[in-house]
Amino acid sequence: MALRLSTKSYRRTLQPPLRTAHGAWGEREGILLRVERPDGTVSWGEVAPLPWFGTETLAEAQDVLRKLGPDIDVTALELVPERFACVRFGLAAALAAAPAVATGKGKLPIAALLPAGRDARDVLRAKLEEGFLAFKWKVGVGRAEEEMPLLDELVAELPGYAKLRLDANGAWTTRDATRWLALCAERPVEFVEQPLMDADTLLGLAADFPVKLALDESVTGLAAAREWQERGWSGVFVIKPALAGPLEELVAWTKTTKPDLVLSSAVETALARAQILRVALAENLTSRPLGFGIGGLFGDRPWDGPVTGPLLDVSWCDGVNPEELWNAAS
Ligand code: MG
């Protein structure tokens, strides 16, 4: 079947800029895809690379799409090499004839982000007021001696039903990690994300401490996740689906290997986030809170999607209009 592929690049200011382990991130660039069928029906995709996370660059993605050209057919995905995982994610979504239908009354909680350091407690209080059930606290930004005592201050605020995860973004030394994980062992901590980067040390820490560990920066794609499974990793995998190839591949991996999975945002727009959420709900990919706590970073309704509360469900997806984004992109 002859299909028509159109693309539009976007560049949006993030407000406020996102603090990451790689410095402040103030602008999100990506590509929207529109596929039109002979019968006039249209479907959508988004390519949102994160090169510092190990994906292709935006220029490489644009080049691959340019080479595909506007006239494609349903086999176009096979022409895109594995390593262009972001293009494969977006193109697969745009080639899917109909969006995944989420059945039942599925809802997933969002983990609200708590800033590093002392400010975390005030944000935690405010987010509890809003009804959030799950929280992610950035650690490894200040010195361990300063951050560690704050954990008990947060735990003291936490109702029994709430979950707290810590994210070190790979920043701890082995000594820091050992001290932190000993501290977490007796605290209600859901898991500790990416304490450090070295694989052997991570496997050792996972064996030595009772608190669950999660891999994030260590697993950009499913190939890396599979390697960790082969090495015996039984902790959590944080996967950013927009960086991990076609959603069908994520579904297949989840069904066959039953990973302990957290889905996380790569700061893609509402278009891709809604596609991810639909599939997550339809396929029951995870019951852990979503790492989608990016709120209104784009500062604009079509790009952010409907205002999000503590839970996401299909009605949120229904409030996302890809055509509106398409028209708003230059
Ligand atoms: Mg992380």
Low-confidence region ranges: none
- Estimate what percentage of residues fall within beta strands: 15-25%
Percent helix: 25-40%
Number of strands: 13
Largest beta sheet, briefly? Answer: 7 strands, parallel
Bound molecules: magnesium ion
Spatial order of strands in the largest sheet: 6-7-8-9-10-11-12
Radius of gyration: 20 Å
Q: Which outline best applies?
A: globular
Helix/strand/pairing category: alpha/beta
CATH superfamily of the largest domain: Enolase-like C-terminal domain
Taken together, the total number of domains comes to 2
What's the order of the H and E elements?
A: EEEHEHEEHEHEHEHEHEHEHHEHH
How does CATH name the architecture of the largest domain? Alpha-Beta Barrel
Instruction: Write the CATH fold name of the largest domain.
Output: TIM Barrel
| Terminal residue distance | 29 Å
Number of helices: 12
Overall pLDDT level = 94
Text of the CATH class of the largest domain: Alpha Beta
Walk me through the structure.
Helix 3 packs parallel to helix 4 (144-157). The protein is built from 12 helices and 13 strands. It has 2 domains: 3-95, 2-Layer Sandwich (Enolase-like, domain 1), CATH 3.30.390.10; 107-322, Alpha-Beta Barrel (TIM Barrel). The chain starts with a strand and ends with a helix. Helix 4 links the parallel strand 7 (134-138) and strand 8. The protein is 36% helix and 23% strand. With 330 residues, the protein is of the alpha/beta class. Bound molecules: magnesium ion. Magnesium ion binds at residues 167, 169, 193-194, 216, 238.
